[in-house]
Sequence to fold (376 residues):
Amino acid sequence: MSTLSDYTDCIKRLLIDIGYRDEPFPAYDSNYWGLFHSWMLEELGPTSTWSLKQLSELEHAAGGIVERAYPCASLQLKLLYAKLTAIAILIDDSLEDEAVHAEILQFSHRLYLGHGQENGMLALYHENMKELSDAFADDAVLRGLAIVPWINYIDACLLEKVLFTTQVRLDTCFNFELDSSAISHSARDSPPFADADALAPNPHYLRSKSGVAEAYAAGIFKASKEQNIPLTRYIRVLPDLTFFIEVINDILSFYKEELAGETYNLIQLRTRSLSSSGARGSGVDEEWTAHDTLLLLCDEIRAATYRIDRMLRLEECEAKMRGETGNVDIDEVDLEIARQWRGWRDGYISWHFECRRYKLSPLKAMIVGEEEVSGS
Fold:
């Protein structure tokens, strides 16, 4: 990153170009937050060693993303996604506890054999996956998209531990974070490679392994257990949608990562990959820089968002919602899809500005100016 101004200008241009709307913060939902708070204290908290302050921050992050990004969702779906997100973050944090790590190593094996989870945190995780599976019961393919990533996430965390947290005797120690939608992994030890650049050629592989983007994407078009939007109406956007979910998080996480001096995240890994390939960038000696990667990712996100909007006919649907003359072939299913996609794309971005974890609140006025806000 060259300067703070470079970063804010880059993000501001992206958000203007994709038509981001800074919608007002939703009214407090006492039912949702009351139930989630009770569950955090009474069920999840006792399975961990986290303090009340840590649990409060976890509740803020996990509950907030669901509140903001799924404005059309039922209480049932909101709570399930919030609970799974909270447990996933807690699992990631527990990898350094050797006793818990031993249980996590057996999670998938026990799941495949049909055995119960002996660890309380993992038992809660499995229980909520089963409840989410029931909510998606009417569509086997969509159910797979919603459930399997939560299973794969466990193995991805273990893979990251093998790749990034095994202590070895290297000249340089690296600190890094791989951040996914609301889920992150911070390693304090050096990677187990004589040449750490061995990781650089496939940064998106590493990123996608630790993300649950498909699960979050499936939830966009399933506002309630009763809603059954045909998968064929939006399946074409899923590759771009999962990319959007992952990379929006990466670029909006980058500021706090730079403040912390972290070097193992998608942007830094991809920078190293492109630099080692000989790409020419904006550096003093035309070397490829992290800012060049940020600009590249913003271009890719911009293109992916345009494709999603076009395939989901977002502009046409919103024109019809406003009562403007438009294509007569827009039906109620199109409108449902458009409303739920718009709710996610704007709410997900807004959550990053509002969540304390990302430290973006002081920058929001610089990025989301009055002109853009009033244009919403």
